[in-house]
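name: query_chain
kind: protein
chains: 1
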Amino acid sequence: ELQATVTINTEQLQLDQQRGSNQIYPELQRTMQDFLNGRRWSNDNFAPEEKIKVNINLLLTKATSQGDFEANARVQVLRPVFGTSYETIVLNIIDKNFNFKYLLGMPLTYNDNSYIENLGAMLDYYEYLACAYQYDSFCKMGGDVFTQRLFNLTNLAQTSGTGWGIVSDVRSRVAISESLMNQQLQGIREVNYTYHRLLLDTYKDQPDETRKGILELLNQIRQINQIRPGAASIRIFFDAKADEIFSIMDEAEPSERQQAFAYLSLLDPIRTETYRKLIR
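structure:
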């Protein structure tokens, strides 16, 4: 299902011996990539051009001779837009607790029913998350099987591993998983479908209708946000879609740009200054 690319950046490592091993980092990169691309994650058959594009960029911040690593990970998932060569970002997550143990020759293992080691579990987590969002973007609630697997995985890892976080930390893995299962937030999953399949896929031929549809979606998110302010799935949506929505709405009529600014600055306040350009 996956066409995953893993890159590893060692520039922030302090000691020469940490950066100088020219064997472990290529092997780690290859092992992670093979783990993601070489496993079957669903019962569906994917043609090469249908595979889900996943980019994982690891910025290593600490490494020890015992094989303990600390890293930040940026995970991006891309989706093609119908009738165009454009690929839209479905997920754009920065994980600041991507910590694991790895030694040369170490195989990655994971079992759905037990927690074995952190690196394999984290890669499984992001694979399930990628599939959940990608499937949801093509079919309403199409990612159900993956959201359930994700929830089971985080329950196992939270009790056995480290760095998985708590629900109140909206950017943690646990909070993201919980938000996908929470009944109060199922509307965000439907927004994911409507935005991609019914609006973005038709934007080329129906730009005005797409802009009106986006305003309706932003109002739906506003209503959900009143129940669960700043929930993880709301944050994830704007982390992936902020620039794209701005670009689409920047071509709208003044009244629509004004309305878009009102919604966006309320729902995604950290990017208010960017959105303010809509009411130039």
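note: The mean pLDDT is 92.
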